[in-house]
Amino acid sequence: MDRVVPLPETLVQPLLAHLSRVCEEHNADLAARFGTVQLPFALARKYPQADREWGWQYVFPAATRSRDPQSGEIRRHHVHEQNIQRALRKAARDAGVVKRVSTHVLRHNFATPLLEDGCDLRTIQELLGHKDVSTTMIYTHVVRRGAHGVRSPLDGLPPDPSPAPPARRV
Fold first, then answer.
1. From its phi and psi, is residue 118 left (phi > 0), alpha (psi between -120 and 50) or beta?
2. Would residue 2 be called left, alpha or beta, if left means φ above 0 and alpha means ψ between -120 and 50 degrees?
3. Please, which residues have CB within 8 angstroms of residue 148's CB and are 6 or more apart in sequence?
4. CA distance 101 to 134
5. 121-144: pLDDT as tens digits
6. CA 13 to chain centre
7. Is 136 in contact with 128 (CB distance < 8 Å)?
8. How confident is the model at residue 167 (pLDDT cuts 50, 70, 90)?
9. Residue 18 in contact with residue 57, Cβ under 8 Å?
10. Helices 105-116, 121-128: crossing angle, 10 deg rounding
11. pLDDT in tens, 49-93
C-alpha cells in the first residue's frame, strides 16, 4: 500500500539536484541504447515509447543495469530495498546504536514527533495507513507528557505585533 507524507522543505533542493543527476544518467543510458523501464499493466502496448520517457523512470534507480528476467532486456531497475536496509543498519552501527534497527524505525521516527507537536491521532493514523486508530495509539506511550505536558492553544499563536497600550495614571 502506498503512503503519502509531506515532503520537508529542507529536502526540496537536494531532491531536485538528485533528480537532475538521475535524468543525466537516464540520458546517458538512452544514448547507450538502454534507458527503458518495465511499464505497469498494458501501458507498454498502449504507449510503446513511454518506457524511455523521463516521467516513467525511477526516482531512485539502481547503480547498475541488469537483465530483466521477464523480457530479457538490459535495463536499470529501482534500487533494491535491501540496499536501503543495509545502509540504515550501517548508519545505526556508526552512530553507536546497539539495538537491532530496521526501516520500520523510520515510521516511529515519523509518528512520534507528530504526536509530540500535537498532531491529532486520526491524521497520524491516515499517514501511517493504519486501519484502526488503536494501532496508532501505541505511539502515545513514547510521548509520556501526562496532563502537565499539555500546551495551551494560545502558546501556538504568533506574538501580537501591535504595541501595548500606554499605561494609564490613576
1. left
2. beta
3. none
4. 24
5. 999 999 988 999 988 888 887 776
6. 15
7. yes
8. low
9. no
10. 160
11. 999 999 999 999 999 999 988 889 999 999 999 999 999 999 999
